[in-house]
Amino acid sequence: MSSTLLNSINWDASPLLPVIAQDVTSGEVLMLAYMNQEALALTLQTGLAHYYSRSRQSLWKKGETSGHLQHVKEAYLDCDSDTLLLKVVQEGVACHTGRMSCFFNRVDVDETPKEPEIKIEAYSITDKIYHIIQERKHADPKSSYVASLLHKGDNSILKKVVEEAGEFCFACKDGDSKEIIYEAADLMFHALVALGSKNIHPSLISKELERRFGLSGIEEKNSRNEH
C-alpha cells in the first residue's frame, strides 16, 4: 500500500484517526478503533492491522496476544481524509467478548445479545475485568453490583475501596493466608472499579510500576517533582 495515504492526513489537526474494520468477504462491520501515525505506518508496512489504544495509551497489533490477527487487504480514506476504512481478513473473532463483531448490542429494539461463540483466554484477568466494568456503565443498576456502584458515583465507589483496604490490613495482621488472598482480591477488584470509573486502564498502573522499577526512593520522589 502506498505511503501517499499517510501524507494525505492532517495529523496535527487530529493525532488519532478513527478506523472502521470490515470483513472483506461478507462486508460485516467488525470494529471501530483508532490509529496514530505510527500505527498506520506499521499497518501499511506489514499488512496487519495495528491500532493505538486510548485506554492503554500505547500501540498494539490486533491479535498479538489472542492470535486473532487482521490481515489488511484494502484501505480507504473517506472524503474528508479523517476516517479510515480497512477491509480485512479476520482470523478468529474481532471482539474481546468472543463475538465476531463488536457491534452486537442492538438499541432500536429489545434484544438479548447472543452468547459469545469463542472464549478468549489470552487476555489478562485485569483486562477482562476492566472491559466488564466499562460494559456495566450501561447496565441496569438493579441487575449488576458493579453497575449499582457506578450509578451511585465516586462516594460509594471510594467508600468500598477504603473498606476493603481496611479488611485487607486486618487480614494481614491476623496472618491468615487464605483471608489475606481473599481480601486482597476484594481490594484489587474495587480499585479496578474506581479506575474503570475514571477510564484508566490497569495497564497504565503496570507502566508506572515499570517506570519506577530500579529507581531508588529518592530518585522516584524527584521524578514526581519534575512533572
From TrEMBL:
It is an enzyme of class 3 (hydrolase). The keyword Amino-acid biosynthesis applies. The gene is hisI. Residues 31-104 form the Phosphoribosyl-AMP cyclohydrolase domain. This is Histidine biosynthesis bifunctional protein HisIE. It comes from Sulfurospirillum halorespirans DSM 13726. GO terms for biological process: L-histidine biosynthetic process. Keywords: Amino-acid biosynthesis, ATP-binding, Cytoplasm, Histidine biosynthesis, Hydrolase, Multifunctional enzyme, Nucleotide-binding. Coiled coil: none annotated. Residues 126-227 are annotated as: Phosphoribosyl-ATP pyrophosphohydrolase.
